[in-house]
Amino acid sequence: MKILQISNYYYPHIGGIEQTSRDISQAVSGAHQVKVFCFSHRNADEVDVVDGVDIIRAKCFAKVASQSLSLSYGKLLAETFDEFHPDVVIFHYPNPFAAHFLKKQLKRFPGCKLILWWHLDITKQKLLRIFFEGQSRWLLNRACKVIATSPNYIEGSAMLRSVKDKCIVIPSCFSEQRLAVTDEISARAEELRRQNEGKVICLAIGRHVKYKGIEYLIRASKLLDDNFVVWIGGEGALTKKLQRLARGDNKVEFIGRLSDDELKSRLSACDIFCFPSVTKNEAFGLALAEAMAYGKPSVTFTINGSGVNFVSLNGVTGIEVHNGDAQEFASAINTLAEDKELLKEYGGNAKKRAFGLFSSRQFEKNVNELISSL
């Protein structure tokens, strides 16, 4: 089959949707002909090749409410349809500007099958959500399959519930190769443990934005005794505010953006993975799945309609507490720290669940089964 993916951006641009797009390309390119259409992260229209896949990029001249805009997008997309004649389009939602032009092409090519890869609802931009509701409904009705990353998201989304019979769950995945640990990484992890001997090490990784909930982890840390150390990785618009909030708490250490090797060292060294996201903007939680692959139990909040509580199961791979309750979050951390058998049990369950559901090998199997079903 000829498969055209339409994503917002694509590698080397880094993001959750972009990574999923690349994972799909790698999963199907051996058996099918694949092209990707997206916005350019440079100041020009361009065509290049990534992992043997042609990437057509339309120049973006501005962004409004997180939406990229391009003057050349419609023309380039029409040319791509005319030249490639795709049998299947995989459209990564949300991307309302692109959807406007895709709708025109799908009307020109009525035999083209549409797979709608639903990453998240439009929630933050409430006016945009209302304005584009008709467009979203059209896409859902036109699609032959709608992909969600968890059953929780289907149940929590009014849009997806309206087409539940079309919905298929394909969880996001981590790369086993990317998470592989070398002797040098193991040595660095051991060094980190020696530096914090006698301490319970908690780790959180994520952009410093509101929905990631890092402020609640910092508030929880203030309720823990000095037997803990709390590493907070990543950066973002709220970094300075979070640092001010953490003043006076010597347990908290901001470790910034991490290289892949340093991330793997920290994941290997930590005892508990803290994932304090608080809204549905956290649609899945790939960093959580990666930590589970290292055999780390987690503490999470309950987020109605989010895949976070599908990735990690309360009382199986970690502990889930009421949303935004820093005191409960601290109590859950204490529970895992004080019960070493429970810590070990949940960690083992986490690793088993991660490799059983969220590995790239399983993702490749899921995607190829989807294509075959068409």
Jot down its keywords.
alpha/beta; Rossmann fold; 2 domains; 8-stranded mixed sheet; 16 helices; 21% strand; elongated
Structure description:
- This protein has an eight-stranded mixed sheet with strand order 3-4-2-1-7-8-9-10, with helices on both faces.
- The protein is built from 16 helices and 16 strands.
- α1 (16-28) packs across α16 (360-373), α9 (214-221) packs across α14 and α12 (286-293) crosses α15.
- 43% of the residues lie in helices and 21% in strands.
- The chain has helices at 16-28, 73-84, 96-108, 126-131, 133-142, 151-156, 158-161, 183-195, 214-221, 239-245, 260-269, 286-293, 308-311, 326-338, 340-357, 360-373; strands at residues 2-6, 33-40, 46-50, 53-59, 62-64, 67-69, 88-93, 113-118, 145-148, 167-169, 200-205, 228-233, 252-256, 272-275, 298-301, 318-321.
- It is of the alpha/beta class and 374 residues long.
- The chain folds into two domains: 2-173 and 359-373, Glycogen Phosphorylase B (Rossmann fold, 3-Layer(aba) Sandwich), CATH 3.40.50; 183-357, 3-Layer(aba) Sandwich (Rossmann fold), CATH 3.40.50.2000.
- α1 links the parallel β1 (2-6) and β2 (33-40).
- It is elongated, with a radius of gyration of 21 Å.
Chart the SSEs and their pairings.
Blueprint: E1 2-6, H1 16-28, E2 33-40, E3 46-50, E4 53-59, E5 62-64, E6 67-69, H2 73-84, E7 88-93, H3 96-108, E8 113-118, H4 126-131, H5 133-142, E9 145-148, H6 151-156, H7 158-161, E10 167-169, H8 183-195, E11 200-205, H9 214-221, E12 228-233, H10 239-245, E13 252-256, H11 260-269, E14 272-275, H12 286-293, E15 298-301, H13 308-311, E16 318-321, H14 326-338, H15 340-357, H16 360-373
Parallel strand pairs: 1-2, 1-7, 2-4, 7-8, 8-9, 9-10, 11-12, 11-14, 12-13, 14-15, 15-16
Antiparallel strand pairs: 3-4, 5-6
Helix pairs in contact: 1-16, 2-3, 8-11, 9-14, 12-15
